[in-house]
Amino acid sequence: LSASTIVREAGEVAQVICVKEGTACLISAGLLVHVASVTRNVKYMIEQKYADDIGFYDGDQFIGNDCHIGGMHIPDMMLITPFFYKGEHIGWLGNYTHVPEVGAIEPGGMCASAKEFVHEGIRMPGVKIVERNRVKRDIMQILTSATRDPKTMELDTRAKIAGNERARQRLVKVIDEFGLDFYLKAAQKMIEDAETFARDKVKRFRPGKYRARTYTDSVGTFEQKLRVGELCIETKEDGSMVISTPVASPQALGFNNCAMPA
């Protein structure tokens, strides 16, 4: 449905189905590096108590691209909708694409001349852009007026809105055919099976801590010092895995930064 080349040609897109507490039970084929992007945004809205004042209603959709909440960087935009069945909120649907322009200090969103995070473009930390199936024109105008390519931004956003609606219609047909109880149990079973399969695989690894340290030098026109990021993965005999970042340089000039979700 999307008009942008980065989606149409590069395939940077995927659709996600989540249970009510925000855990993903099914992710489509696509850009799987964003496996936790939608779920982190959903859980952020739940933790921030959006239900108390902003509200979750049938037909709502929220746009998010703050990479400190979820995603890899600002050009990763998500559209998330609460999934209702016959008036009952039973889960979430979401999708994401990389958009080609976000109104940053340079075109394109990967800004070598950025000196701080606010130079990287417009940030939408879970903003309601569709309310009860009607696009909020003021929010759409804020989004498009902040970018150099407003037509593509609006087309990409409307494509994601339509993608969630298509997914909703298909899931409703599944529930109509098999029943709500079956759907909820099946969604939970997929989560439980995924954990079981993952633990079984981790149990085959040699227990221990595995570290990888990556260095990067300057990106852009500024004088920059060497930066470092270290990832530690600890595998245990019970099949659990602990991932940490014991070493990470602070925010640096240019685009070569990595927020915690990434």
Descriptive notes:
With 262 residues, the protein is of the alpha+beta class. The chain has six helices and ten strands; from the N terminus they run αββααβββββαααβββ. It has helices at residues 5-8, 37-47, 50-53, 137-145, 150-178, 180-203; strands at 13-19, 24-27, 61-64, 76-85, 88-98, 125-131, 134-135, 208-216, 227-235, 241-248. Strand 6 (125-131) and strand 7 (134-135) form a beta hairpin. The longest helix has 29 residues, at 150-178.
List keywords for this structure.
7-stranded antiparallel beta sheet, flat, 262 residues, 3-stranded antiparallel beta sheet
List how many beta strands DSSP finds: 10
What composes the largest sheet? 7 strands, antiparallel
Unreliable runs = none
Task: Provide the residue-averaged pLDDT.
Answer: 92
Helix content: 25-40%
- Structural category: alpha+beta
For the CA atoms, what is the radius of gyration? Answer: 20 Å
Overall spatial form: flat
Query: What proportion of the residues form beta strands (DSSP E)?
Result: 25-35%
H-E string: HEEHHEEEEEHHHEEE
Terminus-to-terminus distance: 26 Å
Tally of helical segments: 6
Strand order of the largest sheet: 2-1-5-4-3-6-7
Compile the SSE list and pairings.
Blueprint: H1 5-8, E1 13-19, E2 24-27, H2 37-47, H3 50-53, E3 61-64, E4 76-85, E5 88-98, E6 125-131, E7 134-135, H4 137-145, H5 150-178, H6 180-203, E8 208-216, E9 227-235, E10 241-248
Antiparallel strand pairs: 1-2, 1-5, 3-4, 3-6, 4-5, 6-7, 8-9, 9-10
